[in-house]
Amino acid sequence: MTPGKTRTHLVWDWNGTLLDDIHAVIHATNAAFAEVELAPLTLEQYREMYCVPIPRFYERLLGRLPTEAEWERMDDIFHRYYAERRVACGLTAGAEDLLAQWKLAGHSQSLLSMYGHEHLVPVVRGYGIESHFVRVDGRTGPSGGSKALHMERHFEALAGVGGISPENSVVIGDAVDDAVAAAHVGARAVLYTGGSHSRSSLLAAGVPVVDSLGEAVALAETFSA
């Protein structure tokens, strides 16, 4: 490492970033839509319309916010169908090597996901990559919201780990909300086009947008200061 430079810490997103699960997400979303008689979406339509909080995404399609009862049913159906399809999903191309190489180079990395914490940890362990991270955090509390406050808590927990701070960190994710959460704590962000958003939607976040995780890591390295 060049004298005077600080090592960059990576905060990885899980769904749609490290885990190549967008088709499982589309399947589960369309199953939830059927509950309120919404037509199924194609991958392209989903990427153009998707946003958080999730009820707002549903509002774009329903023309109104779902009722509390509708939201609860749709959320339950989504997670049930997603769990069935997730088992067939693999890691994104190159992800495992990138994680191993980043750790081997002496850098730190962590994982923060809006997937429920109690489900996330055993799933990540099952893919054999848990040891690459200094911390793995999933969502606690209700689903469907923003990652910003979770990111805040993530960095509070990281504060005692080798001087990891937001200003020396880069969030790599597939959603505009990842950039919003990064900005909330003062971290940088790089967004990947292989997940939940179209390239045009990601570009609107005002941060770098890349087409591979390898590009994301290479770009993150240039942020060292």
Q: Can you give a write-up of this model?
A:
With 225 residues, this protein is an alpha/beta fold. It is 47% helix and 12% strand. It contains ten helices and six strands. Strands 3-2-1-4-5-6 form a six-stranded parallel beta sheet, sandwiched between helices. Helix 1 packs antiparallel against helix 4 and helix 7 (148-158) crosses helix 8. The longest helix is centred in the middle third of the chain and has 19 residues, at 68-86. The radius of gyration is 17 Å and the shape is globular.
Short account of what is shown:
The protein is 47% helix and 12% strand.
Total number of β-strand segments?
6
Looking across the biggest beta sheet, what order are the strands in?
3-2-1-4-5-6
Computed over alpha carbons, the radius of gyration is 17 Å
Enumerate how many helices there are, as a single number.
Answer: 10
Task: Please report which band the strand proportion falls in: under 5%, 5-15%, 15-25%, 25-35%, 35-45% or over 45%.
Answer: 5-15%
Rough shape? globular
- The structural class is alpha/beta
Helical residue percent? 40-55%
User: What's the overall average pLDDT, rounded?
Assistant: 93
List the secondary-structure elements in sequence, H or E. EHHHHHEHEHEHEHEH
Major sheet summary line: 6 strands, parallel
Instruction: Extract low-pLDDT stretches.
Output: none
Terminal CA distance: 11 Å
Organism: Streptomyces cyaneofuscatus
Protein name: Haloacid dehalogenase-like hydrolase
Pfam family, one: Hydrolase
